[in-house]
Design brief:
By secondary structure, the chain is mainly α. Helices cover 67% and strands 4% of the residues. The strands form two sheets. A two-stranded antiparallel ribbon has the order 1-2.
């Protein structure tokens, strides 16, 4: 494939066949990241993966209670003295806002846990679509679909987007892909909008 043909493909609209394949890969990515479903939803409760999700869930619940303020200090961290929280507020703010919207302003704790557990594989699956768009911007449709297929089953990416692993790490490859996608578009077309979106992606990642 020549550079010119790759550039034409990167700027051409997505056809129905490729859109169907990408939609299928995104759905498959979500299902792959939910392989632990039976271990997470047990007896009407949510069993979160690993330890960090409990800290995130605590801050999400506190953010909902004091919306839109996201606590930066927690007495349960380094108890009893407490400590400043080391991770950024973005994911917790996003999931708290999602829970408030879905719960019409008064979400139940059980619903908050379920929604947040499910949001993580959704973000992981979104990374597949971003991988496709980024690779298509750089190469073309064929390599882009291959890239999306690889990310769908990439073990590290699956692990970061695992059901009930409520942790900010799932957003890192997603935002990095968006940063490079918009940066390359801005560099190629001179679009101020894409330049601003690249900056926004970087700011959200920080």
């Amino acid at each position: 494939m020549t550079h010119g043909s790759a550039e034409n493909e990167s700027s051409s609209p997505l056809d129905l066949r490729d859109a169907a394949i990408l939609l299928g890969l995104t759905a498959a990515a979500f299902l792959v990241r939910c392989f632990n479903w039976s271990h997470v939803f047990v007896g009407g409760e949510v069993r979160f993966e690993e330890f960090d999700p409990f800290g995130h869930m605590r801050r999400i619940v506190m953010t909902i209670a004091h919306w839109p303020h996201v606590p930066q200090f927690d007495y349960f961290t380094n108890f009893p003295q407490g400590a400043d929280l080391a991770w950024g507020p973005g994911l917790d703010f996003l999931l708290a806002g999602m829970s408030l919207a879905l719960g019409l302003g008064s979400p139940l704790d059980a619903d908050i846990e379920r929604w947040c557990a499910l949001a993580i594989p959704v973000l992981g699956a979104a990374g597949v679509a971003c991988a496709y768009l980024l690779a298509r911007q750089m190469t073309g449709r064929g390599p882009a679909l291959l890239s999306a297929a690889i990310v769908t089953i990439l073990p590290l990416h699956v692990n970061l987007g695992l059901l009930a692993r409520v942790d900010h790490h799932v957003t890192e490859p997603l935002l990095a892909s968006l940063l490079w996608l918009f940066f390359l578009r801005a560099a190629r077309t001179g679009s101020r909008r894409d330049a601003w979106l690249a900056g926004l992606s970087q700011a959200l990642g920080i």
